[in-house]
Amino acid sequence: MQNVEKIIEILKKTVPEHPYRSHNPFHILIATIISQRTKDEVTYTVANKLFAKFPRPKDLKNASEEEIAKLIYPAGFYRQKAKKIKEVARIIDEEYEGKVPGDIDELLKLPGVGRKTANIVLARGFGKKAIAVDVHVHRISNRLGWVHTRTPEETERELMKIIPKKYWGEINSLLVMFGRTICRPVKPKCEICPIKEYCEYYRSHANSQSS
DNA sequence: AAAACGGGGGC
DNA sequence: GCCCCAGTTTT
């Protein structure tokens, strides 16, 4: 699988950059919680509004759940998320001196933080080597034939074997954008895909379908 | 293992 | 009008 590095380099030149460029770990964490089962444009809009009003853990801790819920309303799951966001802010302010922990086990203790969210915070917020597997990474890795897996955990383990470590932190952003623009869940745009020649899915569907 | 949370957008 | 979407938590 020497191709993996080549494929990633092609994607890096072709795929648009991930639009959420904050490197503030707390903002990454809260924005990622908001993003769960939510379209990303909506996520950025409401996250920016939220941080404009309550930028620091201490600010969000002191905000009311109703106030938070109102600001993130369009993202859906707003009551649940508002409660989690307030509690996460409180824990970080009171138990971690206002700093998001850069450790997977500590992150997983936070409400609303599962494996995917924790890995995104580590990768994007701290620049650590962590592979965050969401539906895009899972789908695309299987389509390409990099893995043949059923669960995200399994995908994460297998990807760690075949993706060079230097790409771990950015593979999620890259594949999410690739998945949005080209390798969509339904009707992937294989005609214009820059890596179709390396794709198992494309080879097996090359004759039968184009749309 | 399945249900529940949820508004917005694509078709 | 139906179905899916940067998942996590509860049943």
What features would you describe in this structure?
Helices cover 60% and strands 0% of the residues. The chain folds into two domains: 3-16 and 132-205, Helix-hairpin-Helix base-excision DNA repair enzymes (C-terminal) (Endonuclease Iii, domain 2); 25-126, Endonuclease III, domain 1 (Orthogonal Bundle), CATH 1.10.340.30. With 211 residues, it is mostly helical. The two termini are 29 Å apart. It has twelve helices and no strands.
| Sequence stretches where pLDDT stays below 50 over 5 or more residues | none
How far apart are the first and last residues' alpha carbons, in Å? 29 Å
Strand content: under 5%
The average pLDDT is 92
Give the helix tally.
12
What is the top-level CATH class of the largest domain? Mainly Alpha
Largest sheet: none
* Topology order in helix (H) and strand (E) letters: HHHHHHHHHHHH
Number of strands: 0
Count of individual domains: 2
Which overall shape is indicated by the principal axes computed on the Cα atoms? Answer: elongated
* Class based on secondary structure composition and strand pairing: mainly alpha
- How helical, in percent, are the residues? 55-70%
CATH T-level topology of the largest domain: Endonuclease III, domain 1
From the alpha-carbon coordinates, what is the Rg to the nearest angstrom?
Answer: 18 Å
Instruction: Examine the secondary-structure arrangement and name the CATH architecture of the largest domain.
Output: Orthogonal Bundle
CATH superfamily of the largest domain: Hypothetical protein, domain 2
